[in-house]
Design a protein that fits this description.
By secondary structure, the chain is mainly β. Helices cover 2% and strands 44% of the residues. It contains 1 helix and 26 strands. Strands 2, 5, 8, 11, 13, 15, 16, 18, 20, 22, 24 and 25 form a 12-stranded parallel beta sheet that branches. It is globular. It starts with a strand and ends with a strand.
Length: 280
């Protein structure tokens, strides 16, 4: 409930602990979650808030560390929609009241504003057994180099920009999902910017070979390094800009269309067995 606190903080020296809130059907959390590193040393801890069918997250998380690395917050429903800041976290599509048995379809909502707030004190992992859709812009917090990771068992669709200071990872057909499918893919229809980090787009299900889905990019991707695993089409509007680490095609085929292009300031690296198809 609001005003409550779940805390696994270190004291003067040590790593933050773990806070796990999980249910087999529906989870609702409105309190503060803390797993801070010690004031004199130690890293931030780990927190997971998951609903196997549905998640209503309206809380806060502080996994910071004065002397070490920040911790990680994992949010994990079936399907996840990142909505506008004016929306209500935990909205049930079509209306209705939160409760067990509600929203069997598994569609859960978290606002982009809440994600931005969370990124001020923790790395954030958004994980869905099926699909993740970004329908509202996620913007870099005022301070801190934080990472944002999206992991979906099927598909990820980015329809609004994502900007962070750390790294962006978009992983479709992700093996961490119990319902992952080989045909999942990432569709990028809005800009991705990792100011000082990397952007990784992958459907690597086994850490050995890519899935069968084809990623589609129709927007700009700007980072120090761009890593692609799985066949990727660069369609009209796509511009990949890598400042220092280059564009790395780790598996599959990279296909720039007639109006998609690579603006690489260093190099394009093709792993063994990969292909770069140039427009004719």
């Amino acid at each position: 409930m609001p005003g409550a606190r779940l805390a696994a903080n270190a004291t003067s020296d040590g790593d933050g602990g773990k806070v796990i809130v999980w249910s087999d059907l529906a989870t609702q959390l409105q309190c503060a979650v803390e797993a801070r590193g010690g004031s004199s040393g130690g890293h931030g801890g780990f927190a997971e808030v998951s609903g196997k069918a549905y998640l209503d997250f309206r809380g806060t998380a502080d996994l910071s560390a004065r002397q070490g690395r920040v911790g990680t917050l994992l949010l994990d429903p079936i399907d996840l929609n990142v909505a506008a800041s004016g929306a209500t976290d935990g909205d049930v599509p079509g209306g209705g009241t939160f409760g067990f048995g509600i929203n069997a379809a598994g569609n859960s909502t978290v606002t982009s504003g809440r994600i931005t707030t969370l990124l001020a004190t923790t790395d954030v992992v958004l994980q869905a057994s099926r699909d993740i859709t970004v329908n509202s812009a996620i913007l870099v917090p005022a301070s801190g180099t934080r990472d944002l990771t999206l992991q979906a068992g099927r598909n990820i669709t980015v329809s609004q920009p994502i900007t962070v200071l750390g790294n962006i990872v978009l992983s479709s057909s992700d093996a961490s999902s119990s319902t992952d499918t080989a045909s999942g893919a990432v569709t990028v229809n809005a800009a991705l910017t990792a100011a000082t980090g990397s952007v990784t787009i992958t459907n690597d299900r086994t850490n050995a070979s890519a899935g069968t889905g084809t990623h589609v990019v129709t927007a700009t991707i700007t980072a120090a390094t761009v890593n692609l695993t799985g066949s990727t089409n660069l369609n009209t509007g796509a511009v990949l800009t890598a400042a220092t680490g280059g564009v790395n095609q780790l598996a599959g085929t990279l296909t720039p269309g007639a109006n998609g292009r690579l603006a690489v300031l260093t190099n394009v690296d093709l792993a063994s067995g990969t292909t770069l198809v140039l427009p004719t």
